[in-house]
Design goal:
By secondary structure, the chain is of the alpha/beta class. It has helices at about 5, 10-30, 60-65, 70-75, 85-95, 145-150, 165-170, 175-185, 185-195, 200-220, 250-260, 290-300, 310-315, 325-335; strands spanning about 40-45, 75-80, 110, 130-135, 155-160, 225-230, 235-245, 265, 270, 275, 305-310, 340-345, 350, 355, 365. About 40% of the residues lie in helices and about 15% in strands. It has an eight-stranded mixed β-sheet, with helices on both faces. Helix 12 crosses helix 14 (about 325-335). It is globular, with a radius of gyration of 22 Å.
């Protein structure tokens, strides 16, 4: 697919991707504006601002939401980059006609630079929490070193496009070895090529996603969350949206955002993937009983301990599909079965719409195994 065709019509996948980024930006901004007098949103592959069918892309969604907030108009810095000058000109034209765009204290900045590690120097004067979005056409321009550089400063976070389909085909292709090495790190990419030789397609995907996750965690990214996009009418994976942060609050927020955009829930647990068509598509996740699995994990890991609901969630959820709501649901279920003790008990806790609540400070005691 050429870039020209790409911008002709928005796909449902691209809309979901833009929704995730825009929703996360807003939630992140609400947290950061309490801690800093400036925040920034930087899009390194900004595109044209809208598709020819009229669908708005991420830069426009971010700006329109910011303009509606008095505080955000005073503190938001935006920088939009695209090496294609015609894309940037089109984006400028779209942004210039956004109602009240001139009310922004810091007017949007536009760059036409190739995305390499050197582009980071363009942002050194900002010195404020920054959300970076890296969404290239393909995977050229995304590197492990670049992401680590972007995350160095306090409050910086990154969301990037991980083209699984092309990366899977390119891992063992000598013609793109340079790009794969820069994405995973040279030594890790070398070992990955060896590990993948005997794996099934399902195992390959697990291995590739796990390796990029571990590579990010070994760098600046303490917390990593991915969201999978499937091809239309297929169980094959197209790409992932990967979020990287050093902050556990941001990680929780993004999990909640991605959970709401998931195309399927099993026992209330999100699968963190989007399938344009789910009919007749059954995955291993769909056949699982994830809340039952969660109950067993908690009873095993926290056997004999007394801790708050918040401590249970924070000490267990990293790297797993479960969100806070799932933990509270299974803890209430275990309480009703008499398996765990919660103080105060259900009879003494308040109800909300007929449901017994479970506050974060409530104490939970797990039985000794």
């Amino acid at each position: 697919m050429s870039e020209h065709i790409f911008f002709e019509k928005s796909t449902k996948q691209s809309q979901v991707k833009a929704t995730i980024v825009a929703k996360y930006f807003w939630a992140w901004a609400q947290v950061m504006k309490k801690r800093s007098d400036k925040i920034a949103y930087i899009d390194l592959f900004a595109g044209t601002g809208s598709y020819k069918d009229g669908t708005k892309s991420t830069p426009i969604l971010v700006l329109e939401r910011a303009i509606l907030d008095v505080d955000m108009r005073e503190l938001l810095i935006t920088i939009f980059n695209d090496v294609d000058a015609t894309h940037i000109q089109a984006l400028q034209n779209v942004i210039n006609v956004i109602p009240d765009v001139r009310t922004l204290k810091y007017q949007p900045q536009f760059l036409t630079r190739e995305v390499t590690e050197e582009i980071v120097s363009s942002f050194e004067q900002i010195h404020c929490p920054t959300l970076f979005f890296i969404d290239p056409f393909g995977y050229k321009g995304v590197s492990l070193h670049l992401i680590n550089l972007l995350l160095q400063e306090w409050g910086n976070e990154c969301i990037f496009f991980f083209n699984y389909n092309r990366i899977n085909m390119g891992v063992q292709n000598e013609g793109v070895k340079k790009h794969i090495d820069s994405l995973f790190g040279e030594e890790r990419a070398k070992m990955l090529r060896i590990k993948l030789q005997t794996l099934s397609s399902f195992e390959r995907e697990l291995m590739i996603v796990d390796e990029i996750t571990q590579a990010l965690k070994e760098g600046q990214g303490k917390y990593v969350q991915s969201f999978c996009f499937k091809y239309k009418d297929s169980s094959r994976t197209s790409h992932y949206l990967i979020f990287v942060t050093k902050n556990k609050v941001g990680y929780k927020i993004m999990k909640d955002v991605m959970a709401k955009e998931s195309s399927n829930l099993e026992q209330g647990v999100p699968n963190f993937e989007y399938k344009p068509s789910t009919q007749n598509q059954i995955s291993l996740f769909d056949m699982a009983q994830p809340l039952d699995d969660l109950a067993k994990m908690l009873l095993d890991q926290f056997a004999g301990r007394t801790m708050t609901v918040k401590e249970v969630y924070e000490q267990h959820h990293v790297g797993k599909h479960y969100i806070e709501k799932n933990y509270k649901e299974i803890l209430k279920q275990l309480e009703s079965e008499g398996t765990i003790i919660i103080v105060p008990p259900a009879s003494q806790r308040r109800k909300n719409r007929g449901e017994v609540t479970l506050a974060n400070h409530v104490k939970v005691t797990f039985p000794i195994q």
